[in-house]
């Protein structure tokens, strides 16, 4: 039996007969709970502005407002708050106000916020409190609990809540089924989502709707299962469920990603012939697919058709077309499109500028790229890690390693200054140990440039500096330095770098192992190669053709004859090496 904490769902649901769920249209149901005056919600939120904890001052400030609370106002305030302590304090304060008692919907809001923060124990206590106060448990309330579990990738627990609803006699509705399918898909359980979908379409009370089909079509598209995506679309029409813009956009995206661009064009033309659903989203997906397939001219023609049709344009479609132009080295046309974009009052974003900056760097016009970087900041757009990676990479490709290093160092210094000034830092994301990770791609670009320019001492020093500065290197950071040490004929240094990588808890990948096996094999370090093979197998990594080729000098180190074996022959010859019980078998 599923439980929420120590509380059985069956216990919660069996104490009181549940009232029937309203079947009124959504707009009519809302009439039962009129919208609160905006000044009520805003006044309450103004009390919490900048407040990091609930305290007596907050309570006194709320008391001074002398407002009459309503259910909607309480829900809106809780949903707007991100600080759990403040939200919980407000929830308890509201319960003490005259003529106000929490209902299922206000409990639902606090349960969702507290649960998604990770405090499942506190969430469970609110569920118990709600039960004790006699508030009815509805499918929507339980769907919120399911979404909390989904937020934490706890698909099994979400499914158990779903099962207990039926066991307790509370029929899951269409919304609940869709929530569960969404959770299962996000957690990677496609077959489980398919089973829930099958339950819906074989029953009579809760049939799939457009939202159900769209989720499945979108997932199939992202996974490259075009055939199944098409089958879902056909089934929609057969079952009388009208495909909407999301349905067709997902299908077009699926066909484009799988390279079936002719089929995508056919689908688009069918939609257009019906005189409906050809909108910004469907145009964008087909333009993107044409660009991916190398049909740049057709993509640009379709974009012009989109403009002439009067279809709404947004920054996403402009960015797609800019990317196509840049990849075709049509940087002048890209600049004109940028001007046209602004003339149409469509504000560029960081992706827009990154695309143009990247275009200039690819054409080795780094000075022009930096002018766009300055313009970007002047227009109030904050550069991101990708911006800096592009610029550092552009300088490195021109051989301007020192300039790239100075630029990166200045960037790091400015972020530290910003952190000291604002109490925050622009690197945002940190790992479980509090180490910064957002700018790692920038540093990896710098490391790659240093290694390619054969400045290995500087690369090793920079790797050490990253750790001291709070940046956690990743597998690429170490792999690129190990590769450089290998090319320089320094096997012992490369092996030491590998050991350091493991000590930091960074899991090596196949590229790391192949680089080391090749390097150590050529150096005749047979025992070390054996250890690497054992570690590789323990991590579940399967050797590829590069691995087998790298093992050739290990097995035939005494042979001076050139080896000319195809990958299959190499694999057959060295399978015993990968399965050896001891070093002497090599």
From TrEMBL:
- Is Repeat one of the keywords? yes
What the entry lists under Pfam families is as follows: PPR, PPR_2
Q: Which UniProt keywords apply?
A: Repeat
Q: Does the keyword Repeat feature in the UniProt annotation?
A: yes
Q: Which domain of life is it from?
A: Eukaryota
The residue spans of each PPR repeat are 173-207, 209-243, 244-278, 279-313, 314-348, 349-383, 439-473, 474-508, 509-543
Which NCBIfam families does the entry link to?
Answer: PPR
UniProt xrefs under PANTHER family = PENTATRICOPEPTIDE REPEAT-CONTAINING PROTEIN GUN1, CHLOROPLASTIC (PTHR47936:SF1), PPR_LONG DOMAIN-CONTAINING PROTEIN (PTHR47936)
According to UniProt, the name of this protein is Pentatricopeptide repeat-containing protein
Where does this protein come from, organism-wise?
Ceratopteris richardii
Recall the taxonomic lineage recorded for the source organism.
Eukaryota, Viridiplantae, Streptophyta, Embryophyta, Tracheophyta
């Amino acid at each position: 039996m599923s439980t929420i904490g120590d509380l059985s769902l069956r216990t919660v649901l069996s104490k009181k007969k549940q009232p029937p769920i309203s079947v009124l249209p959504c707009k009519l149901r809302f009439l039962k709970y009129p919208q609160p005056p905006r000044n009520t919600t805003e006044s309450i939120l103004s009390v919490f502005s900048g407040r990091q904890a609930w305290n007596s001052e907050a309570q006194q400030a709320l008391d001074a407002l002398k407002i009459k609370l309503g259910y909607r106002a309480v829900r809106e305030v809780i949903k707007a708050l991100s600080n759990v302590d403040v939200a919980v304090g407000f929830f308890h304060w509201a319960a003490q106000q005259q003529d106000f008692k929490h209902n299922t919907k206000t409990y639902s809001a606090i349960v969702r916020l507290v649960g998604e923060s990770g405090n499942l124990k506190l969430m469970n206590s609110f569920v118990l409190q709600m039960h004790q106060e006699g508030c009815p448990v509805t499918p929507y309330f339980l769907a919120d609990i399911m979404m909390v579990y989904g937020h934490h990738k706890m698909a099994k627990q979400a499914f158990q809540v779903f099962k207990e609803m039926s066991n307790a006699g509370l029929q899951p509705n269409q919304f609940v089924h869709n929530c569960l399918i969404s959770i299962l898909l996000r957690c990677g359980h496609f077959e489980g989502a398919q089973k829930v979908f099958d339950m819906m379409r074989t029953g009579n009370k809760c049939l799939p709707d457009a939202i159900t089909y769209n989720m499945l079509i979108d997932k199939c598209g992202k996974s490259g299962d075009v055939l199944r995506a098409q089958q879902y679309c056909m089934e929609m029409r057969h079952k009388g469920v009208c495909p909407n813009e999301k349905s067709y956009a997902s299908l077009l995206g699926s066909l484009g990603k799988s390279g079936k661009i002719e089929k995508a064009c056919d689908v688009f033309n069918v939609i257009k012939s019906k005189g409906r659903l050809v909108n910004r989203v469907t145009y964008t997906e087909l333009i993107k697919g044409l660009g991916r397939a190398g049909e740049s001219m057709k993509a640009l023609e379709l974009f012009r058709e989109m403009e002439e049709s009067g279809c709404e344009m947004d920054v996403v479609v402009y960015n797609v077309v800019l990317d196509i132009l840049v990849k075709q080295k049509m940087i002048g046309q890209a600049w004109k499109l940028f001007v046209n974009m602004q003339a149409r009052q469509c504000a560029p974003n960081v992706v827009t500028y990154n695309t143009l900056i990247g275009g200039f760097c690819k054409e080795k016009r780094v000075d022009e790229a930096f002018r766009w970087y300055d313009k970007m900041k002047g227009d109030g757009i904050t550069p991101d890690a990708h911006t800096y990676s592009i610029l550092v990479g552009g300088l490195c490709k021109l051989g301007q390693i020192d300039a790239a290093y100075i630029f990166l160092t200045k960037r790091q210094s400015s972020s530290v200054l910003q952190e000291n000034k604002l109490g925050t830092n622009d690197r945002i994301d940190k790992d479980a140990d509090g180490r910064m990770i957002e700018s790692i791609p920038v540093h990896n670009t710098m490391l790659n440039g240093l290694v390619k320019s054969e400045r290995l001492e500087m690369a090793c020093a920079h790797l050490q500096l990253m750790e001291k500065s709070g940046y956690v290197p990743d597998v690429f950071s170490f792999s690129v330095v190990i590769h450089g040490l290998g090319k320089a004929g320094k096997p012992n240094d490369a092996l030491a770098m590998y050991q350091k990588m493991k000590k930091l808890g960074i899991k090596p990948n196949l590229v790391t192992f192949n680089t080391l096996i090749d390097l150590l094999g050529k150096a005749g370090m047979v025992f070390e190669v054996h250890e690497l093979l054992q570690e590789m197998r323990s991590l579940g990594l399967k050797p590829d053709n590069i691995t087998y080729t790298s093992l050739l000098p290990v097995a035939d180190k005494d042979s001076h004859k050139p080896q000319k074996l195809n990958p299959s022959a190499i694999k057959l010859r060295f399978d015993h090496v990968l399965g050896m019980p001891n070093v002497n078998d090599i």
